[in-house]
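Help wanted!
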Amino acid sequence: MRATYIYGAGDVRVITAPDPKLIESTDAVVRITRACVCGSDLHPFHSMPADADARPIGHEFIGVVEELGKDVATLKVGDFVIAPFAYSDGTCEFCLEGLQTSCIHGGYWGNGGITGGQAEAVRVPFADGTLVKVPGTVDESQYAGLLTLSDVYATGWHAAYKARIAPGQTVTVIGDGAVGLLAVLSAKQMGAERIILMGRHKARTDLGIHFGATDVVAERGEEGIALVRELTGGSGSHAVLEAVGFMPAYEQALGVVRAGGVISRVGVPQYENAPVGRGSLFGKNVGLVGGVAPARAYIEQLLPAVLDGTVNPGLVFDQTVKLEQTPDGYTAMDERTALKVMVDPT
Amino acid sequence: MRATYIYGAGDVRVITAPDPKLIESTDAVVRITRACVCGSDLHPFHSMPADADARPIGHEFIGVVEELGKDVATLKVGDFVIAPFAYSDGTCEFCLEGLQTSCIHGGYWGNGGITGGQAEAVRVPFADGTLVKVPGTVDESQYAGLLTLSDVYATGWHAAYKARIAPGQTVTVIGDGAVGLLAVLSAKQMGAERIILMGRHKARTDLGIHFGATDVVAERGEEGIALVRELTGGSGSHAVLEAVGFMPAYEQALGVVRAGGVISRVGVPQYENAPVGRGSLFGKNVGLVGGVAPARAYIEQLLPAVLDGTVNPGLVFDQTVKLEQTPDGYTAMDERTALKVMVDPT
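Answered by r_m:
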């Protein structure tokens, strides 16, 4: 089959790789219908050392079950499925608690002998635990929405869910990438009254307004903080959803959060140490929550409104490439000429 | 009147100070029945520069209303009252949300012209907002329990409350000071099934067992972490209540917390930066909550069980000194010959 591998910073190639095969009796092989490029794929695209081993890449995909191990109980060949960005056994104590990203036997696509999602097909471990079957017949117009459940919508939802957003609250979302925009949508669904989106790419923040943002603050740093505080009567935001991962975004979150409020992070932190003492979190009783989103925990819950068109998270896709053009998709996202690129391997 | 002032590290004196008087129409003057020395009083006792201005000290007290400003509506002269360790107006948006430590007009005893609690009397700003009247007749045997509501019990409760401890959970408490021990009691009241107390002073951990600890781990650092993980089947603790405030306690919390769990801090952090990235909080979806406890928010709720003897948080007091001996109380707590010292200014 054809599959995308990363060889080093700036070096993504579509190569011929072995066809995926069943290994464990709990495996499935899934023929991929659509995949996509993630903001987090840009981290190795920026920084992977040239002497590191090439590895398969891509962790978001939807597709059709092609083969099933004999112990897979809940799926049939031909089922249309959504894969979350981590696989998980579905039975360990963490999976049962809805924290599938901490599954004792779980892992991530493209690691440990599991191939990636930007490919024609993939072997899926623990198919019963990992995959979510989409009921009924799936129309091509639904692909974009379904694909967001693999990661970006589920991750935006995780940010809002962990912040325990309550109706009437003021929420500030930092970051106008796909996750930030879908955190806006999630906050709106949870009843946030005011949603301030901090971002400076107009096409993106316009989409954020479509998803429910009531205010846009393009300024950053102290200037942005001052504007958000002004919008919130000086007190700051009950919840801050941080969908970037760089230290300035964390500092911005500290600046705009209300005493007693919460900062919920889903942008993978590109730092390890950060201010959390009396002058930042402790003195104001600000909570710090979030983490790697257990997308699997949310897919069934979010699926109906995507299928019936109540919400349209698929609007975050603004470009589609064929599998062979996947490297162009990386470049487009890196240069911000695309918000989010869909990959069509069919 | 006689009042305790701190002049520098190791230098606490009881001096003659002006009698407190009503200044604002919302003030009360309270004649102090009992006060006490707090673990946090030891911070300036260790580190206050000799050239700093002497200041009144003590922030925990119970007493009797002696004078009232004309705009105080809810209290009468002669009422027996509990003062939380911060005063607050009771009417601002933060007070109404139960975060009185962020009161817009509030502050702390011993600062900004307000005298301290280790004294014969004190002027109380915003008496309606700040003070909680104890119903009925108060017996001297109840003083210890009531006095813990001023800070240590309310602070232990805050740790457990912010961690949202649910019945059946495993909770680890770090620190066997008065706050840690009362965090054990609070976790027990909230239904924690297993409560692991990390502390190494046997008299204190024995009291922790009395309050509900099911296990005691005296070891610290990596060894202590390994023991707690063993006690929790390798997975760690749902909630960690950190009642120390030094970095090793934070690191211990990171080591024993379960994926998806929460670290709730009430020990005032003696650091500003700490690990919060992918390798510590983010990767495991661990939340970091807590802060300066709004004791005022909890006093009414905790009072009935203290009055009727259902709980006996006053057991944390193991020494009483007259006001003139307050400096000895500091020394006893500093040298750990006392767990918590009550001050009797009557």
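OP: Thanks! One thing I noticed: Chain B touches chain A through 36 residues (CB under 8 Å).
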